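Input structure tokens:
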């Protein structure tokens, strides 16, 4: 047994199992830390993965589920082990961005029964969202909050990952091999995934590379950004300033 990268909401471990005949199999066990804001997490992710079982997407397959943690202590999902590792800082960003874009488009083309999916709702809508103490221009933040609580653009609804970003894609060489972390699979605009991925690219690699990612309506970028506000003491001042630049640029685009 060994720990795997990821697991923000819990713990992810790889298990090497052997049967009585000596045949070995590698599985992945995901344990979900109980959280009142993330109810029934093990079942929700298993449900999405089971909807994808017959698809051509490279995703884990469900082996077993401990929905309430009666066996594992925490709610748990046992899945097949998938190949690859994270590739967060590519030497050639262009092809890397192209592969990520193609992968997102594959997700959005997939036909999944709409009635089987939870509907997208922005995270953080009920949060007070005060101006962060480190923020430079209060007026920009306050305008972003007004936009966030305003009407959403009317866009087609499709199957979305809802947490699509480079950290949830595994690679074998220079090709993506697996998409992980399907807890928030939803019915919503494809722009949600593109906005979320763009924010993460900017936080990790900077604005220059993030600009090469596909544009979406600025509302989606603001909605995604305001669902999580960085703390410079925890996440670093560079990420905080990149975050501020991201939000400020989205607000400016809506003003033109």
């Amino acid at each position: 047994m060994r720990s795997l990268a990821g697991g923000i909401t819990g713990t992810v471990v790889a298990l090497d199992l052997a049967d009585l005949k000596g045949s070995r199999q590698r599985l992945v066990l995901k344990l979900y830390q109980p959280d009142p804001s993330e109810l029934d997490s093990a079942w929700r992710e298993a449900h999405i993965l089971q909807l994808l079982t017959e698809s051509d997407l490279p995703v884990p397959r469900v082996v077993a589920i401990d929905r309430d943690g009666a066996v594992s202590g925490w709610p748990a999902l046992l899945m097949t082990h998938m190949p690859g590792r994270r590739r967060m800082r590519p030497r050639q960003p262009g092809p890397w961005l192209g592969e990520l874009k193609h992968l997102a488009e594959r997700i959005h083309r997939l036909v999944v029964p709409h009635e089987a999916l939870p509907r997208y709702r922005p995270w953080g809508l009920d949060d007070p969202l005060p101006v962060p103490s480190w923020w430079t221009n209060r007026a920009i933040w306050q305008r972003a909050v007004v936009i966030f609580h305003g009407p959403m653009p009317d866009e087609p609804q499709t199957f979305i990952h809802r947490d699509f970003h480079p950290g949830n894609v595994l690679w074998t060489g220079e090709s993506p091999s697996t998409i992980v972390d399907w807890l928030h699979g939803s019915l919503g605009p494809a722009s949600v995934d593109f906005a979320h991925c763009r924010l993460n690219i900017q936080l990790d690699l900077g604005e220059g590379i993030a600009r090469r990612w596909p544009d979406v309506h600025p509302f989606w970028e603001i909605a995604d950004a305001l669902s999580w506000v960085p703390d410079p003491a925890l996440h670093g001042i560079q990420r905080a300033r990149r975050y501020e630049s991201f939000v400020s640029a989205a607000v400016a685009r809506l003003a033109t």
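Strands lie at 2-3, 10-18, 24-32, 62-66, 76-80, 158-160, 169-172, 175-179, 186-188. The mean pLDDT is 94.
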